[in-house]
Amino acid sequence: MGQKTNPVGFRLAVRRNWQSRWYAGKKDFSRLLVEDQLIRDKLMEKLKQASVPRIFIERASNRVRVEIYTARPGIVIGRKGQEVEKIKEELARLTGKEILLDIQEVKKPEIEAQLVAENVALQLERRIAFRRAMKKAVEVAMTLGAQGIRIQCSGRLGGADIARREWQRKGRVPLHSLRENIDYGFAEAQTVYGKIGIKCWICKKESDNN
């Protein structure tokens, strides 16, 4: 049987850093972990239109530093920083702690695996043919400097009665090389026929860490 592992978790401490960076004792660990998940869920729901691939959380005593990576920083910041203040207040109410927000711009959203998967999911929900959506995403990523890309769709593709899996790949995507800069993203499309899962792996150059 095929033994599969998440490409991000597989590379932790070698190529990747943890998305939550803090230390807690046995008593507090589970509570803080749930709090992290609540923060992420709240932000993902609020910033659905802002193309957010990842959120980093750091803690120090009663402070929580949240680093949001986004392809559209203007939407997150809002006019004169009003949105940022609203987000801070909501998270402070949710956690009861002091919140520090840091917003980072994603320079090339077309080679950000999570955003590519979400983009394909959005197209499938709009009833665009899955092969066409995959092909376009692959071509755009390769044009913008990705070394390789693989996209996989699973589910009732094209409304077929039997669910199946189809994928497209271009360039090199060496999943077993820990030193390679592999980015991974997963999204789900809620179509009329049911859920379709989209997985995306992108092999980037050393310099494309953002």
From TrEMBL:
Signal peptide: none
KH type-2 domain mapped to chain residues: 39-107
Pfam hit, one: Ribosomal_S3_C
Domain of life of the source: Bacteria
Record family assignment: Belongs to the universal ribosomal protein uS3 family.
NCBIfam families associated with the record: rpsC_bact
Purpose of the protein: Binds the lower part of the 30S subunit head. Binds mRNA in the 70S ribosome, positioning it for translation.
Self-association state and partner proteins as the record states: Part of the 30S ribosomal subunit. Forms a tight complex with proteins S10 and S14.
Descriptive protein name: Small ribosomal subunit protein uS3
Taxonomic source organism: Cephaloticoccus capnophilus
Gene name of the record: rpsC
